[in-house]
Amino acid sequence: MSEAILKVEDLKKYYPIKGGLLQRVVSQVKAVDGVSFEVKQGSTFGLVGESGCGKTTVGRTLLRLHENNGGKVIFDNKDVFALSNKELRAIRPELQIIFQDPYSSLSPKMPVGEIIGEAVREHKLVPEKELRNYVMQIMRECGLQEHHIDRYPHEFSGGQRQRICIARAVALKPKVIICDEPVSALDVSVQAQIINLLMDLQKERGLSYVFISHDLSVVEHISDEVGVMYLGNLVEKGPKKEIFKNPMHPYTKSLFSAIPTPDPTVKMNRIVLEGDIPSPANPPSGCKFHTRCQNCMKICKNVAPEYKNYGNDHFVACHLYDK
Amino acid sequence: MFKKTALQKEAKKRMKEISKTNRAIVKKFEAEKKRKDVPESEYKTEMKNPHNILEIDNLHTYFYTDMGIVKSVNGVTLEIPQGKTVALVGESGCGKSVTSLSIMKLVSAPAGQITDGQIRYNRPTGPIDIVKTPISQMQDIRGNEISMIFQEPMTSLNPVFRIGAQIDEAIMLHRIDIKKADVKKQTIKMLELVGIARAEGIYNSFPHELSGGMRQRVMIAMSLCCNPRLIIADEPTTALDVTIQAQVLDLLRDLKTKIDASILLITHDLGVVAEMADYVVVMYAGRIAEQGTAHDVFLHPKHPYTMGLIKSKPVVNQEVDRLYSIPGQVPNPVNLPEHCFFKDRCDKCIAACNGAIPELLQIGNTHKVACHLYDNEKEV
Question: Is B247 an interface residue toward A (CB < 8 Å)?
Answer without folding.
Answer: yes
